[in-house]
Amino acid sequence: MRSNLSVIVMPMLALCSLALSAQEQTGNAGLTLMARGNVTATATDTQQSRDLNRKAPVFNIDQVSTGAQSQAQFRMLDGALLALQSDTELLISEYKAGSGTEQGSVVMELVKGSLRTVTGSIKGDAGNYQLKTPVGSIGIRGTTFQLSYINEIMLVGVWDGQIELQVTRADGTVENVTFGGGESASFASISAAGQVTPLLSPPAEFAGETGAGGEESSIGSGSNTDTGSNTVLTQATNSVSSQGSEDTSFIAAQSYQGSSEQIPVADLIAARTGSYQYNTLEQFSVQSTEGAVSDFQVSLTIDFDNGTVPQGELSFNDAGGEWFAAFNGVVNVDQLELGVNFASHGNERAQGQIDTLFVNGIDQILGQFVLSEIENPAVIAGGIFLIK
Question: Rounded distance, CA 114 to CA 231, Å?
């Protein structure tokens, strides 16, 4: 019996060792911050699929998928935040951090569905960031852009900076088209045949794509799911200099292996007493249809004794005036359920939604919001923030 057992066990151990070695060779691409519903990663070399839960790594050979009524968020190795909506497939072909004089590189493919990302340290200045889409490949040279793939039509909007889209036409020819950054067109539609039609203003479809909440909530803990179009929204990460710039290198070892991370968020909340105000802004990315945004501020107070969020507000300015939103809510087990009870933009009444997620135990809050004018719903602003 002892001999037979060793014959069975040793090959099993060898197989496990080989599998581990293969994963180590591919390298981590990022870490799962949140997975709700059916979220899986399939290794493209072995076709083995695994469920993704909080803190689970994703690798360079993974195709990450979300099912219906599902969503996921990841912290990538360069500090980028990546959010996938429902019914999305993203192939991670390469995600490598730079070291010394060697630059990092990213190659991903949006097979279907919707994603948003707050970019990290890897940019596209040297052509080292490539995002493939159904109509072509995108190189990032800027800060904020948006894509929507609807009925085989790709809609493009560049809010700040510049992107270069490599379009493959029906006859097989390839053309590099640049949007934003002083180019003649910041908005366009692109057909499946590669026909590019410049637009003078943002597509109407963008008015329904909040970029940060609503029916397409992604960076947050709410249960809303993506009922809109397939969207990519990329935003630069802005660090608050007065607080010091956060090290946006891969934070798995630092932020997700601390002692507080071993305790479930619900237990940390239950053990906390008194009230605490989260008002130190660490990172943010906000965009508006009315142009550049300035003076962004956000704060919220949690009453841990009563399980409520009695007060929260955010504000910022754009060319149309000041955006302001007041919100409150309750603590629901391990998350916050928030509602905007008043919002305005200049002299116009507004409406909106805000979603949040605890990170680093309950030391920080990652939030996402969207606001729009009630009488002019095409006037929209939204973004992502990290406070402590």
Answer: 4
C-alpha 149/C-alpha 118 separation (Å) is: 19
For the whole model, what pTM was predicted?
0.52
Task: List the domains of the chain with CATH numbers.
Answer: 27-233 (2.60.120.1440), 258-387 (2.40.160)
Each residue's pLDDT tens digit, 224-247: 333 333 334 333 333 322 233 333
Q: Which helix (H) or strand (E) holds 180?
A: strand 174-180
Rounded-to-integer distance, Cα 365 and Cα 84, Å: 19
Nearest alpha-carbon partner for 32 in 88, 66, 74: 74
What's the rounded Cα separation, in Å, for the pair 129 and 138?
Answer: 8
CA-CA distance, 65 to 63, in Å (whole number)? 6
- pLDDT tens-digit profile of 352-378? 999 998 988 899 999 999 999 999 999
Side chain identity at 95, as an amino acid letter?
Y
DSSP 23: H
Taking the C-alpha atoms of residue 107 and residue 91, their distance in angstroms, rounded to an integer, is 9
- Give yes or no for a contact between 93 and 108, defined as CB atoms under 8 angstroms apart: yes
